[in-house]
Amino acid sequence: MSQSAPSNSESVASFRNPRAAHDFVGRSCSISGVGSYVPEQVLTNHDLEKMVETSDDWITTRTGIKERRIAAQNEFTSDLATKAAQRAMEQAGVTADQIDLLIVATITPDMPFPATACLVQQKIGATGAAAFDIEAACSGFIYGLEIGQQFIMSRTCDTVLVIGSEKLSSIVDWTDRNTCVLFGDGAGAAVLQNRPGAHGLLTACMGTDGNKAGLLQMPGGGSRCPATVESVASRLHFLRMDGKETFKNAINAMYTAAIESLRRCELDISQIACIIPHQANRRIIDLVAERLGASPEKLFVNVDRMGNTSAASVAIALDEAVRSSRVKRGDLILLMVFGAGLTWGAAVVEW
Ligand code: UT7
Fold first, then answer.
1. Residue of 177, 178, 180 best suited for mutating to test ligand 1, as the one with most atoms within 8 Å of CB
2. Nearest CA to ligand 1 atom 25
3. How many CB atoms lie within 10 A of CB 183?
4. Angle between helix 77-92 and 313-323 (nearest 10)
């Protein structure tokens, strides 16, 4: 990791951009590249009609999802992450040897240990990077951005690769219609760099409520309930969710986080050009936007094509928004996430 003492000109605190605490002492956390990758195989609602008692109409009306991507049997979270990372690095013009830190946010690591980030480090050849995973469920990508930003602002790192990657199909109970219609696989990545004066990550905020950990969890596979014949027979190694309660909490949490991040930047929702919420359910997205007073055309939505890809969700959406020119240089973007934990967060990015 590169560390440098502050120069004289940097030693005086300066807030060149009044909105951006990130301009402190001449450091700035910019997003210099984004990338994503989703597997080729498409699983449609009509395919699911043949697997469980459901209908395209029910899934579309209740969630907005029409299809989702499913990774191949020999394609793992680290493989998805690697492809997304390589695309982000290409866009950023960054080579593997420049990466100081590599963070993978995931709830579906290749294995309990070593961290998936270590496997990705090997695959992309980032031999000089420290690498670790974070587990904040669907909120993981914003948690990762915030952590990466802190490493950059503290002068510990100049270039940080943050990846959200999931193979949720490996922990979905394909006999449970309550959950199996919701999730998909994929990965998204962002390269964070210290670029004084450049646009970037203005703020990121995070929240947690462990009292509600039971709303969305996978009970088996940890120290509390290691894998046994009984735990497998009881289907404890699949995710479980209280959908209705999770739904209510998602709206409150994303709204609160969004308001807090806007407040920190002294921004009003009308100044945001593009809103990228966690893609779990179209109804949640619309209700949060309504509560924020945001016009619907500002929303970026891909839940119809991707389903809920947890930590990869807003990362994939951000990449799609950038590559489709839905966001342009100078635009203000609001990211909002929510997930198991419960965890939530929001970030404001000046693109
Ligand atoms: O990423 C982390 C955050 N995740 C979320 O934010 C997800 C939050 N929750 C949700 O998106 C929604 O609660 C769901 C989409 C999961 C469910 O929608 P809902 O409107 O809350 O439906 P429900 O759970 O109240 O279920 C209504 C009915 C039930 O039947 P009964 O008991 O009323 O007879 C379910 O059994 O719909 C039934 N149902 C289904 N029917 C057809 C549940 N899943 C299905 C299905 N197909 N796939």
1. 178
2. 244
3. 24
4. 30
The residues annotated as belonging to the active site are: 138, 278, 308
- The candidate with the shortest Cα–Cα distance to 171, out of 159, 184, 162, is 184
Question: Is residue 70 within 8 Å of residue 169, measured between CB atoms?
Answer: yes
274/332 Cα distance (integer angstroms): 7
Quick: pLDDT tens for 211-222: 999 999 999 999
Distance (angstroms) between ligand 1 centre and the Cα of 159 equals 41
Structure tokens at 246: 């999770």
Contact (Cβ atoms closer than 8 angstroms) between residue 38 and residue 69 = yes
Q: Is 0.90 surpassed by the pTM of this model? A: yes
Closest to 308 measured CA to CA, from 334, 340, 342 = 340
Q: 49 pLDDT band (50/70/90 cuts)?
A: very high
Write out the H or E segment, with its range, that includes residue 245.
Answer: helix 243-264
C-beta of 62 in contact with ligand 1 (< 6 A):
yes
* Buried residues in 322-339 as b, exposed as e (16+ CB within 10 A): beeebbeeebbbbbbbbb
Cα separation, 39 vs 79, in Å, equals 10
Compute, in angstroms, the gap from residue 178 CA to the centroid of ligand 1: 6
Q: What is the pLDDT of residues 119-176, one digit of tens each?
A: 999 999 999 999 999 999 999 999 999 999 999 999 999 999 999 999 999 999 999 9
Q: Which domains does the chain have, with CATH numbers?
A: 30-193 (3.40.47.10), 200-350 (3.40.47.10)
Instruction: Give me the sign of the Cα torsion angle 300, 325, 71, 192.
Output: negative
CA distance 35 to 321: 11
Helix and strand totals (H; E) in the chain: 11, 13
Instruction: Tell me how far apart the alpha carbons of residues 152 and 261 are, in angstroms, rounded to a whole number.
Output: 19
